[in-house]
């Protein structure tokens, strides 16, 4: 579970935090605040994802070694783990009724 920046409680699931790494939003189950990942670090991670695909696809184009796709997948999984762990959340809209 991850901490909601609005109510400071462990209410966000791993799946919700993972989806926020792909520009989705989520709502806190406790305070109903609309949350998203901070855009600047998220954009930097998106550049790394594009670089990963471009780099290993380009290497495959020249070497014709299918192991490059294994490396691409491993780096992609590592980037996903770093994205979930280190990209901070921000509040888009607090629930005014609570």
Short description:
The protein is an alpha+beta fold. The protein has helices spanning 14-20, 39-63, 67-86; strands spanning 2-3, 10-12, 26-27, 34-37, 89-93. The chain crosses the membrane at residues 42-63, 69-88.
What does this structure look like?
The chain has three helices and five strands; from the N terminus they run ββαββααβ. With 98 residues, the protein is of the alpha+beta class. Strands 3-4-5 form a three-stranded antiparallel sheet. The chain has a two-stranded antiparallel sheet with strand order 1-2. A hairpin with a 6-residue loop joins strand 3 (26-27) and strand 4. Helix 2 (39-63) packs antiparallel against helix 3 (67-86). It is elongated and about 60 Å long. The model has no long low-confidence stretch (mean pLDDT 93).
């Amino acid at each position: 579970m991850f901490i909601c920046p609005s109510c400071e409680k462990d209410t966000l699931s791993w799946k919700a935090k993972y989806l926020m790494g792909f520009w989705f939003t989520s709502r806190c189950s406790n305070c109903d605040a609309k949350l998203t990942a901070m855009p600047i670090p998220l954009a930097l991670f998106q550049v790394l994802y594009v670089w990963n695909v471009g780099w290993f696809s380009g290497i495959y184009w020249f070497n014709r070694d299918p192991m490059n796709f294994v490396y691409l997948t491993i780096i992609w999984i590592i980037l996903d783990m770093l994205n979930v762990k280190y990209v901070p959340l921000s509040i888009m809209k607090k629930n005014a009724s609570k």
